């Protein structure tokens, strides 16, 4: 599962963390490699969508705590909410897109 856009996006977030908001940089330095590792270690046969979503939600919660009240956290919340609505149920296209390059 680790060949797709997810890993590239996580690496980009980690790289841009200081630019996005410096208050999260240290936490993202620790948390993002764990998310990447989860993607790299699982295949379509071992993938647990609920576990992945739980990890992402916890990552978001921790990130939002670091930026409580900032304009950035409001924008992030809205965008993630929009993204979550489009992933109500796993489909072959969604699973396949996680493995394909960006």
TrEMBL record:
Q: Where are the transmembrane segments?
A: none
Q: What is this protein called?
A: MROH2B-like HEAT-repeats domain-containing protein
Its domain of life reads: Eukaryota
Q: Where is the MROH2B-like HEAT-repeats domain?
A: 2-94
Cross-referenced InterPro entries: HEAT_MROH2B-like, Maestro_heat-like_prot
| Taxonomic lineage | Eukaryota, Metazoa, Chordata, Craniata, Vertebrata
**Organism name:** Rangifer tarandus platyrhynchus (Svalbard reindeer)
Record-linked Pfam families: HEAT_Maestro_2 (PF23210)
